[in-house]
Amino acid sequence: GGVNVVTIRNIKTILTAPRGVDLAVVKVETSEPGLYGLGCATFTQRYRAVASAVEDYLKPLLEGRCVEEIEDIWQTAMGSSYWRNGPVLNNAVSGVDEALWDIKGKMANMPLYNLLGGKCRTGVAYYRHVFGRDMEEAVEGVRRYVEQGCRYIRCQLGLYGGTLRDETGRLAGPGKNAPENSPFGVYYDPARYCRETVELFQRLRQEFGWEVEFLHDVHERLTPIEAISFAKSLEPYRLFFLEDLLPPEQSAWLERLRGQTAAPIAMGELFNNPAEWTGLITGRLIDYIRVHVSQIGGITPAKKLASLCEAFGVRTAWHGPNDLSPVGAAAQIHLDAAIPNFGIQEFAGFTEEEQEVFPGCPEARNGYLYLSGRPGLGVDIDEEKAAKYPCSFREHSWLLARRPDGTAVRP
Ligand code: GCO
Ligand code: MG
Question: Is residue 219 annotated as part of the catalytic site, yes or no?
């Protein structure tokens, strides 16, 4: 810094839901007229808590700081709450962190991947997600993406864990085997789920052969021993990866799993704290790290995590569901472009409304993602249009998971 040092003038959160999914985007405004950055802070289930963390706590802490000092600002923000590494605070820090990288790119007149070392590939391969209420719907869903040039497809029957919806689209309630007076919940049957999912991949291989890579998300719904047995029964179909086979609390089982199957393991969307991933990487217990970049605090920690993974032969597969803003998606795709150990990118597509609110969304063509090429993250926000799609909190009923006997379990 000299006399012309650019500083943070204001930090605010923009809440918007252009596809009906509540998103939180942080805007960092600077002392330089017209120069600002955007970052993703989306924690869709608790977006108001994130907005408070940004505006009530990070804004007063960081106003006046030089925008160039991203690393120091990140360290300061993480330490400033003393209690750290939770999803609310990490998303808030990410909003600021990604916005500062966006600003740095704009100041350098370079796309972010260039600041990160430059492109390792010209397009970023992605996978799409298909769920079918039955086998035929799943096969048709896969066919649609294959016809669009997508070569990686994650597939399942029903919602996570095989949960079904009725004809009206409502989530299935207690099944006929539930005890009397069972509460509302999203009931699923682990044994049926395992059986039907094996049949699904058998069918998909028959239908599509070996040219398409298939993936599957268990969403941590099985007990550890069910999970090991399930992974073994899927071996003949050679999945690209099996995701969240175990919940983070049961990571210690991974070593036993590895002793029994070569199923490629992807894990991480629930991680908040480096303590949750370091041992899995150095112990070579996973093949793909799947953290949600905003959930760990943004681009600054993600690039370090990617380097740690590189040293241990682990590749990246950042979590990219539809509860991620196009700004957050772009941040992930810049990382994908710039790191040698990129594996695959999850991609949920953008609706027309999202593209209207967020000019410069990355584009998918023939199985690859391409960035807008503009400096920084390359995605903007039209605040007037964003205001046309207000967020509206409601319970995320699909998360209220129960086993057939009525026991509440993690979703
Ligand atoms: C995925 C995920 C998501 C999460 C969702 C939670 O792999 O895409 O598991 O679907 O469940 O992001 O809000
Ligand atoms: Mg998942």
Answer: yes
